[in-house]
Amino acid sequence: MIARSKVDYDSPDKLEGGSPYEKIFQHKSTLIALYSIPHNNRFPHIQTLFSRDLDDRDEHDSGWIFARGGPVYIAYRPFASGEWRPVDWTGLLKGGAGGWFSTNFEELAKGSEFYVSESLNNGYVVQVAPVSEYDSMQVFIEAVIALPLNFSLEPLPSVTFTGLDGTRLTANYGEDPSVNGTAIDYKNWKLFDGPFSKADKESEKVEILHGSESYILDFKNITSKTTFSSDQ
User: Fold this and answer.
1) In the chain, what are the domain boundaries?
2) Which among 58, 124, 199, 232 is most buried, taking Cβ atoms within 10 Å?
3) pLDDT attached to residue 232
């Protein structure tokens, strides 16, 4: 039904959407993604968007791809080889099939590229860091390529990577990842547990935080309440 009005949503190079065969794990400034795609899948590939706004893109001999996005250095390590393709590599958007997005294609996406890999078992690591923490991009590159990284794609993707902060991350496709050897207990995770919102699963209540102010929404009793740290 969606593809009837948004033809680009049903295109191999669509910009939006995830995949049931994609497993993503992020710990602070490090992200790991693993894939195991069936042979009969309609779109048997993964693609990673590199915005035209990124500067200093460098495909290093180590296999890492580096770039700078404003005040942030970015390192991307694909586990399988791929190739660069324009965002509109099927030509649908330029042809007007994307509806509203096509009318803004030149403004929104022209010049950006996808790194596309057709390996069915696949994955990548992304490591980012503030530019302010390094004397130069070359220093950042040297720090990243020195990090311990071991991965395998068969029989299923798996990886162990130690990030810039010294944290050792391990992920195996289909299993819970671990941090410094301790598996993450997703069953006991809260619904929200961040600096700006907190909520227990099935509590029907969420607390929104900003500075000393707390705004509590109680969906079970249809009430709301605002408190300040001086009141608590």
Assistant:
1) 2-185, 190-232
2) 124
3) 44
Q: What is the pLDDT of residues 16-73, one digit of tens each?
A: 777 899 999 999 999 999 999 999 998 899 999 999 999 999 999 999 999 999 999 9
Residue 34 has which token pair? 């693993």
Integer Cα distance of 18 and 12 in angstroms: 12
135-143 long-range contacts (CB < 8 A, ≥24 apart) are: 137/56, 137/58, 137/66, 137/68, 137/73, 140/66, 140/73, 140/75, 141/58, 141/60, 141/64, 141/66, 141/75
DSSP secondary structure, 176-218, as one string = --EETTEE--GGG--SEESSSEEE-TT--EEEEEETTEEEEEE
Q: Is the pTM of this model over 0.90?
A: no
Instruction: Give 179-212 pLDDT, tens digit per residue.
Output: 999 999 988 889 999 999 999 999 999 999 999 9
Largest interatomic CA distance in the chain = 60
The rounded distance, in Å, linking the Cα atoms of 218 and 188 is 21
Contact assessment for residue 164 and residue 29, using Cβ atoms and an 8 Å cutoff: yes
